[in-house]
Amino acid sequence: MQWKNLNEQTVYENPWFRVNLADVALPDGRHLDHFLIRLRPVAVATVVNEANEALLLWRHRFITDSWGWELAAGVVEDGEDVAAAAAREMEEETGWRPGPLSPLMTAEPANGLIDARHHFFWTREAAYTGPPADGIESSRREWVPLKLVPDLIARGEIPAANMAAGLLMLRHLLLG
Protein backbone atom coordinates (compact mmCIF):
# COMPACT_ATOMS: atom_id res chain seq x y z
CA MET A 1 0.00 0.00 0.00
CA GLN A 2 2.61 2.53 -1.10
CA TRP A 3 1.75 6.08 -2.12
CA LYS A 4 3.86 7.35 -5.05
CA ASN A 5 5.03 10.90 -5.61
CA LEU A 6 4.71 11.32 -9.40
CA ASN A 7 5.60 14.98 -9.68
CA GLU A 8 6.45 17.83 -7.36
CA GLN A 9 6.45 21.59 -7.95
CA THR A 10 7.80 24.28 -5.63
CA VAL A 11 5.12 26.85 -4.74
CA TYR A 12 7.16 28.84 -2.18
CA GLU A 13 10.82 28.90 -1.19
CA ASN A 14 13.07 30.79 1.24
CA PRO A 15 16.48 30.06 2.80
CA TRP A 16 14.94 27.80 5.48
CA PHE A 17 12.33 25.71 3.67
CA ARG A 18 10.38 24.97 0.49
CA VAL A 19 6.66 24.37 0.19
CA ASN A 20 5.93 21.95 -2.64
CA LEU A 21 2.76 20.58 -4.21
CA ALA A 22 2.99 16.91 -5.17
CA ASP A 23 0.85 14.80 -7.50
CA VAL A 24 0.51 11.61 -5.46
CA ALA A 25 -0.80 8.32 -6.87
CA LEU A 26 -2.76 6.39 -4.25
CA PRO A 27 -2.75 2.57 -4.15
CA ASP A 28 -6.31 2.46 -5.54
CA GLY A 29 -5.32 4.51 -8.62
CA ARG A 30 -6.73 7.87 -7.53
CA HIS A 31 -4.54 10.98 -7.46
CA LEU A 32 -4.16 13.41 -4.61
CA ASP A 33 -2.69 16.92 -4.57
CA HIS A 34 -0.58 16.98 -1.41
CA PHE A 35 1.37 19.90 0.04
CA LEU A 36 4.67 19.11 1.70
CA ILE A 37 7.46 21.07 3.31
CA ARG A 38 11.09 20.33 2.47
CA LEU A 39 13.59 21.22 5.21
CA ARG A 40 17.29 20.88 5.84
CA PRO A 41 18.29 18.33 8.49
CA VAL A 42 18.31 19.44 12.12
CA ALA A 43 21.16 18.62 14.50
CA VAL A 44 20.45 18.26 18.23
CA ALA A 45 22.91 17.80 21.12
CA THR A 46 23.29 17.74 24.87
CA VAL A 47 25.79 16.81 27.53
CA VAL A 48 25.00 14.58 30.51
CA ASN A 49 26.96 15.11 33.72
CA GLU A 50 28.04 12.58 36.38
CA ALA A 51 24.70 13.00 38.20
CA ASN A 52 22.83 11.96 35.02
CA GLU A 53 21.53 15.47 34.46
CA ALA A 54 21.16 16.74 30.90
CA LEU A 55 21.86 20.33 29.90
CA LEU A 56 18.51 21.75 28.72
CA LEU A 57 17.19 25.10 27.56
CA TRP A 58 13.98 26.67 28.87
CA ARG A 59 12.46 28.56 25.98
CA HIS A 60 9.33 30.09 24.54
CA ARG A 61 7.96 29.06 21.15
CA PHE A 62 5.89 31.91 19.75
CA ILE A 63 4.14 29.73 17.13
CA THR A 64 2.39 27.65 19.80
CA ASP A 65 2.78 30.29 22.53
CA SER A 66 4.25 27.65 24.81
CA TRP A 67 7.21 27.34 27.18
CA GLY A 68 9.21 24.16 27.57
CA TRP A 69 12.49 22.35 28.02
CA GLU A 70 14.45 21.60 24.87
CA LEU A 71 17.85 20.42 23.77
CA ALA A 72 20.13 22.71 21.77
CA ALA A 73 19.24 22.33 18.09
CA GLY A 74 19.50 23.97 14.70
CA VAL A 75 19.66 23.39 10.98
CA VAL A 76 22.62 21.73 9.33
CA GLU A 77 24.23 24.17 6.91
CA ASP A 78 24.88 23.07 3.32
CA GLY A 79 27.95 20.83 3.27
CA GLU A 80 28.22 20.74 7.07
CA ASP A 81 28.76 17.47 8.91
CA VAL A 82 25.70 16.67 11.06
CA ALA A 83 27.71 15.98 14.24
CA ALA A 84 29.71 19.18 13.71
CA ALA A 85 26.43 21.09 13.36
CA ALA A 86 25.17 19.56 16.61
CA ALA A 87 28.36 20.61 18.41
CA ARG A 88 28.16 24.12 16.94
CA GLU A 89 24.51 24.54 17.97
CA MET A 90 25.17 23.27 21.48
CA GLU A 91 27.99 25.74 22.04
CA GLU A 92 26.11 28.66 20.44
CA GLU A 93 22.95 28.05 22.48
CA THR A 94 24.38 26.93 25.83
CA GLY A 95 27.96 28.19 26.09
CA TRP A 96 29.19 24.62 26.53
CA ARG A 97 31.53 23.08 23.92
CA PRO A 98 30.84 19.34 23.75
CA GLY A 99 33.47 16.64 23.73
CA PRO A 100 33.16 13.76 21.28
CA LEU A 101 29.49 13.31 20.39
CA SER A 102 27.77 9.94 20.17
CA PRO A 103 24.72 9.42 17.95
CA LEU A 104 21.54 8.84 19.96
CA MET A 105 18.72 8.62 17.40
CA THR A 106 17.14 10.16 14.33
CA ALA A 107 13.51 11.26 14.38
CA GLU A 108 11.07 12.44 11.73
CA PRO A 109 8.83 14.80 13.74
CA ALA A 110 5.99 15.23 11.22
CA ASN A 111 6.64 12.87 8.30
CA GLY A 112 3.10 13.23 6.91
CA LEU A 113 3.86 16.85 5.99
CA ILE A 114 7.57 17.58 6.50
CA ASP A 115 10.66 15.68 5.33
CA ALA A 116 12.87 16.97 8.18
CA ARG A 117 15.09 14.55 10.00
CA HIS A 118 16.29 15.48 13.48
CA HIS A 119 19.63 13.88 14.37
CA PHE A 120 20.25 13.62 18.13
CA PHE A 121 23.70 13.39 19.73
CA TRP A 122 24.98 13.33 23.29
CA THR A 123 28.22 13.35 25.23
CA ARG A 124 29.51 12.99 28.76
CA GLU A 125 32.16 15.69 28.24
CA ALA A 126 31.83 19.43 27.73
CA ALA A 127 33.78 22.56 28.58
CA TYR A 128 32.12 25.83 29.54
CA THR A 129 33.33 28.55 27.15
CA GLY A 130 31.23 31.48 28.42
CA PRO A 131 27.76 32.89 27.93
CA PRO A 132 25.95 31.51 24.90
CA ALA A 133 26.46 33.40 21.63
CA ASP A 134 22.77 32.83 20.87
CA GLY A 135 21.49 33.82 24.31
CA ILE A 136 18.15 34.89 22.82
CA GLU A 137 17.41 31.22 22.09
CA SER A 138 16.38 30.55 25.68
CA SER A 139 15.52 32.20 28.98
CA ARG A 140 17.79 29.91 30.94
CA ARG A 141 19.95 26.81 30.72
CA GLU A 142 19.86 24.21 33.47
CA TRP A 143 21.01 20.73 34.39
CA VAL A 144 17.82 18.63 34.58
CA PRO A 145 17.84 15.08 36.02
CA LEU A 146 17.02 12.49 33.35
CA LYS A 147 14.92 10.60 35.90
CA LEU A 148 12.43 13.53 35.82
CA VAL A 149 11.86 13.40 32.04
CA PRO A 150 8.63 11.32 32.11
CA ASP A 151 7.09 13.63 34.73
CA LEU A 152 8.15 16.74 32.80
CA ILE A 153 6.54 15.34 29.65
CA ALA A 154 3.35 14.44 31.55
CA ARG A 155 3.13 18.01 32.93
CA GLY A 156 3.61 19.51 29.46
CA GLU A 157 7.03 20.94 30.31
CA ILE A 158 8.62 19.15 27.33
CA PRO A 159 5.93 19.88 24.72
CA ALA A 160 7.95 19.22 21.54
CA ALA A 161 7.52 15.58 20.51
CA ASN A 162 11.01 15.34 19.00
CA MET A 163 12.60 16.63 22.22
CA ALA A 164 10.48 14.27 24.33
CA ALA A 165 11.54 11.32 22.15
CA GLY A 166 15.23 12.22 22.33
CA LEU A 167 15.18 12.74 26.09
CA LEU A 168 13.25 9.50 26.68
CA MET A 169 15.78 7.62 24.55
CA LEU A 170 18.67 9.19 26.46
CA ARG A 171 17.01 8.37 29.79
CA HIS A 172 16.48 4.76 28.67
CA LEU A 173 20.07 4.43 27.48
CA LEU A 174 21.57 5.76 30.71
CA LEU A 175 19.07 4.78 33.39
CA GLY A 176 17.41 1.72 31.89
TrEMBL record:
Q: Which cofactor does it need?
A: Mg(2+)
The Nudix hydrolase domain covers 38-171
Pfam families associated with the record = NUDIX (PF00293)
Note the Gene3D superfamilies from the entry. Nucleoside Triphosphate Pyrophosphohydrolase
Source superkingdom: Bacteria
UniProt cross-references to InterPro entries, sorted A to Z:
NUDIX_hydrolase-like_dom_sf, NUDIX_hydrolase_CS, NUDIX_hydrolase_dom
**Keywords assigned by UniProt, alphabetized:** Hydrolase
Name listed for the protein in its UniProt record: NUDIX domain-containing protein
Report the source organism.
Streptomyces salyersiae
